[in-house]
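Hi V.,

Quick status before I head out on leave. The structure for the redesign project is tokenized and pasted below; the design run finished overnight.
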């Protein structure tokens, strides 16, 4: 299924020369095609390696779509980091996006061990991040590593997104929202709808694993059709959604 979705993506992708939107053309040149920051990638690699060397076990309470890999709930930290922790490809993109956009605050749905949160901090150390995780043992492990690595200004909240989002999305806006938990169609659409409350003109939504399953593809297709969304970009591993009123509604597969 993921393979079929990948072929479809490859057949539809465009180069920057077919792009007529000045905003997207500039975004490709200055962000996506910018030089990799080798030091930041090294910091990401070092951070992730700490977990890969952690042989302890925790009991997982699975709130999401379930795992395509794990069969039991007792899991080794090292294995969780390998399977669910941010990959190098995504880290590279996240680092480029955050370094370019310099958001003033971020909301992450799905902390897991905090490797994604740490990547955002590595990209931009001053970034205040609110990150939500339902599994207590996983969240406490993430917290332990944030403290060990002296990361500050991370508000890690333990609870189900369904219970937390109504409160978090009232009376505040976020520059960046990273959706990386519960990869099912209905849940993704629900979280998207809740988070529309936190959007301002320059907010960016990042969706993880938009081609992970047919359900995630359906969710992605419905999200990009939403009238509030103007520019949307399919980077295969991540989907980007902008709300800029000055841009005409257009979808890009890059
Ligand atoms: C793919 S992992 C997140 C990975 C992380 N963002 C990273 O880049 O390293 C998804 C996490 O979301 C959490 N999650 C899924 N559905 C949830 C829900 N409804 N409420 C709270 N947490 C949830 C899972 O427990 C899991 O730890």
């Amino acid at each position: 299924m993921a393979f079929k979705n990948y072929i479809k993506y490859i057949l539809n992708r465009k180069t920057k020369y077919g792009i007529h939107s000045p905003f997207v053309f500039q975004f490709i040149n200055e962000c996506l095609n910018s030089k990799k920051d080798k030091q930041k990638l090294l910091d990401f690699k070092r951070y992730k390696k700490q977990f890969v060397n952690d042989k302890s076990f925790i009991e997982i309470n699975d709130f999401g779509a379930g795992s395509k890999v794990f069969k039991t709930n007792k899991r080794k930290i090292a294995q969780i980091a390998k399977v669910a922790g941010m990959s190098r490809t995504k880290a590279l993109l996240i680092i480029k996006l955050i370094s370019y956009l310099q958001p003033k605050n971020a909301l992450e749905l799905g902390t897991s061990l905090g490797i994604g949160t740490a990547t955002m901090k590595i990209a931009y150390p001053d970034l205040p991040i609110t990150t939500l995780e339902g599994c207590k043992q996983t969240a406490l492990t993430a917290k332990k590593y944030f403290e060990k690595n002296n990361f500050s200004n991370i508000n890690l909240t333990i609870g189900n997104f369904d219970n937390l989002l109504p409160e978090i999305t009232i009376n505040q806006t976020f520059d960046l929202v990273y959706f990386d938990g519960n990869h099912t169609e209905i849940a993704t659409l629900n979280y998207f709808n809740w988070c529309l409350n936190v959007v301002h003109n320059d907010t960016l939504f990042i969706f993880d694993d938009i081609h992970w399953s047919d359900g995630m593809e359906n969710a992605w297709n419905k999200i990009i059709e939403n009238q509030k969304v103007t520019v949307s970009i399919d980077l295969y591993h991540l989907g980007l959604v902008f709300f800029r009123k000055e841009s005409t509604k257009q979808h890009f597969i890059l």
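Above is the designed sequence. The chain has ten helices and ten strands.

G. will cover questions while I'm gone.

Best,
W.
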